[in-house]
Amino acid sequence: MSGHTMCPEMFWAKVDKQGPILRPELGPCWLWTGGKDKDGYGQTKVKGVCTRAHRYAFYLKHGHYPKPCGLHRCDTPPCCNPEHIFEGTVSDNNKDARHKGRSRWINGSQVYNAKLTEVEVKQLRKRVAAGEVQRTLAREYGVCPAIVCEIISRKRWSHI
Asked: Greatest CA span in the chain, whole angstroms?
């Protein structure tokens, strides 16, 4: 199949439209029956380029690929039901995962080597905003000044 366009008929022939109904308000998932990647997402080739199947399903319905990401309302990686797929950013996807309790990532004081708690981070931000010197606070909290700078700029601990 390499080198030519996956026609819609060939694509949909590899989709089981009688999949499970995981969220009644959405209706059935349409499961990709072809090859899948390591994360369980369907894989197909379009014009010789490996593409996730749910992205191609979105393209077939809307005439463009989801930019930058195609997110699943149903949280089912092999689902190709275009009604279950919506556009969003990587940040949207991460927030959606955390909101639905499926995030593999931990943050804050749950990180094994965290030196600060959420309460301390909030205190540190308030103290810097009140004019205290970051270097002094870094010493007091037992972290390096660069960490304090990243906390203040929200490059670290951005979830609070």
From this structure: 66
Token pair for 70? 């195609």
∠ CA(155), CA(136), CA(122), 5° rounding? 45
Burial 26-35 (b: 16+ CB within 10 A, else e): bebbbbbeee
The tokens describing 112, both together, are 């094994």
> 39 near 90, Cβ under 8 Å?
no
Looking from the CA of 44 toward its CB, the CA atoms found within 13 Å total 26
Phi, psi angle pair for 36, to nearest 5°: -130, 155
Q: What's the chain's average pLDDT?
A: 89
Looking at residue 3, its pLDDT comes to: 41
What percent of the chain clears pLDDT 70, i.e. is strictly above it? Answer: 92
Among candidate residues 28, 38, 42, the one with its CA nearest the CA of residue 77: 42
Global confidence as pTM: 0.62
Is the preceding peptide bond at 68 cis, omega within 30 degrees of 0? Answer: yes
Is residue 17 within 8 Å of residue 23, measured between CB atoms?
no
- pLDDT at site 103: 65
